[in-house]
Amino acid sequence: GGDKSLRVFFRKTSWRTLGMFGMLKHSWISPPLFTTFAHLLLCLGALLILFITPLSLAVRLALSIALFTLTPVASVLYRGWQRKRLYAPLQATVLYHVYFLGRFYALYKLIFSRKLPVGALRLTPKS
I want to staple 72 with a disulfide (CB 3.0 to 4.6 A). Which of 8, 96, 105, 111 is the partner? Predict the structure, then answer.
């Protein structure tokens, strides 16, 4: 009964994330939001390491890949630990990458878009 394609999963994740911000009235601290921002910071760190550090290309690539996949892999392992079983860990890691990309896209839309869903919080002032 899940989504039939990664595109549908991405779009639904973005839509759900926008709706989530409409409900965050009292606290911005929630595990999904925390992991999203942690993954965003790790991805930015991966890009900085890849393009700015004076290390060899192989080391930069290895560090960047490690940082880029840390949050999705940790999420898969956490879910596997909760359920006492890892089911298709590579596929689950890809889905978590798409999940976080959908959340990043929703955050981008929330910050830079003029059209927001009803009830969504605006982080930038209306002009």
Answer: 96
d(CA 45, CA 11): 26
**Under a CB-based contact definition with an 8 Å cutoff, are residues 10 and 105 in contact?**
yes
Distance from the Cα of residue 59 to its chain's centroid? 24
pLDDT in tens, 71-106: 999 999 998 898 888 888 898 898 888 888 888 888
The Cβ of residue 6 has, within 10 Å, a number of other Cβ atoms equal to: 14
Q: Which residue has the tokens 């009830």?
A: 119
Q: Residue 35 is which amino acid?
A: T
Give CA separation, 8 vs 90, 104, 108, 120, in Å.
19, 16, 18, 21
